[in-house]
Amino acid sequence: MLKVDKIKVNYEGIPALHEVTLEVHQGELVAMVGANGAGKSTALKAIVGAVSPVSGNILFNGKDITRQETAKIVRLGVVYVPESRRIFGPLTVEENLLLGAFTADSEEEVRGHLDYVYGLFPRLKERFRQRGETLSGGEQQMLAIGRGLMIRPKLLMLDEPSLGLMPKLVTELFKTISLLKEEGYTILLVEQNVREALEIADRGYILQTGRTIHTGGGKELLESDTVRKAFLGL
Fold this sequence. Notes:
Elements: E1 2-11, E2 14-24, E3 29-33, H1 40-48, E4 55-60, E5 63-64, H2 70-75, E6 78-81, H3 93-99, H4 107-120, H5 122-126, H6 137-149, E7 155-159, H7 167-182, E8 186-190, H8 194-200, E9 203-208, E10 211-217, H9 218-222, H10 225-230
Parallel strand pairs: 3-8, 3-9, 6-7, 7-8
Antiparallel strand pairs: 1-2, 1-4, 4-5, 9-10
């Protein structure tokens, strides 16, 4: 579904990604892990058109989307749920969700998507008239993911979804991500919780200073010396 081929990204002339290559097949959950500053978020932003690679190519379902406008990429079914959630605080929960439904063709379709999100996150339904800024951190993360799901994406990209959450909520979050995969969603996950991410991933990529240094099956990477020494303290 997604093929990123040797993309290079610079920030003000300074390299952030060095010919990063990755693939995501339909129905897979692929995790991208690494230390802060490794380039993980930059890779997602390049895929969705928020930053432009200076070289390399990005293909989605065989279509070259390198350097295309973000709105066009989203309409193809690529959704990016950014780090720090970035919900609209003054708007209600439901208003935030409806902003994610801009590709829907009818009110009936919008209502169906809304019902799906409320079924996945019952707490959002309970708080549908509440302003986004009054929600807890965990509820705001549910809202950010729910807004992305309103498009019914072909590829859902999650950027550090567990950041700042309590351990109990982190566990709930990963259960939800696993459920989305079971329902058929294709997911590209960037995550600081390396163990949790690789435990549910079909495959994973390890980034370091803008380079892919290791790739393999999720459980295979968990057992590798690279991950055990660098991220698990073993």
